[in-house]
Amino acid sequence: MDPLIITVAPNGAYKQASDHAQVPLTAQSIATTAKACLDAGAAMLHLHIRDAHGRHSLDVQGYRDALAAVRQAVGDELVLQVTSEAAKVYQAPTQIAMVRELRPEAVSVGLREIDQPEIGEAGLAEFFGWLAGERTMTQLIAYDVADLLRWQALRQAGVVPDAPWSLLFVLGRYTAGQQSNPRDLVPFLQAHAGQEPWAVCAFGATEHACVTAAAAMGGHVRVGFENNFHLKYGALAPDNAALVAQAAQAAHSLGRPLARASDIRAGFFKV
Question: Which of 30, 37, 91, 137 meets the CB 3.0–4.6 Å disulfide criterion with 106?
Fold first, then answer.
């Protein structure tokens, strides 16, 4: 089977130190976490930054500072994916402008967040065309099958150019208590046209079961404190690296080697 890409999402937009003492909120703590997760088997970091008050931020200089700190800790051994998430703070034009100014190596984009009337299909075509031209490793987030079908329609209509896009299927976003189930993957796979490589993330203590199922089905995985604080048996995880290590162990049990950042950049993931 293809090598498994493990992405770690260590903090998210909302989690605080009051939720878990090992949620990294500063550039240096993110860098320290990144190195531990690299050593545990991660190949990609999904990066959120915070402002001086610990709130979600899309500040370009803040991103540059955090990216520099992580690069100092891990060199080129992790692909650094920034988020463009709105988190109830930002609107689509600001999200797009941040990505264009930052010009990151990799970015995740919530399709429903930028597919807004003020952007329109012409604006989407311009943005996705720019991303393709920049060769930015872009992952589109689908929170449900409707998002996936909208993405497919935009591609079929030529609004989104042919390029090495990838997808993230979010399992359990709209279930009671945001407790994911591996069965949440089934509708996505039934609707997926098979063009783009895909990964999953999942909420709660069932995260490990969900990512193991995805790995068995040929997908890739994202784990971390953004969505879950617990190990597979329910105990509180000591840190993000423990969740990465679990995913790496699942890959080993499935006979999937772990991907490296160099594999991703060489075009294996085509993101």
Answer: 137
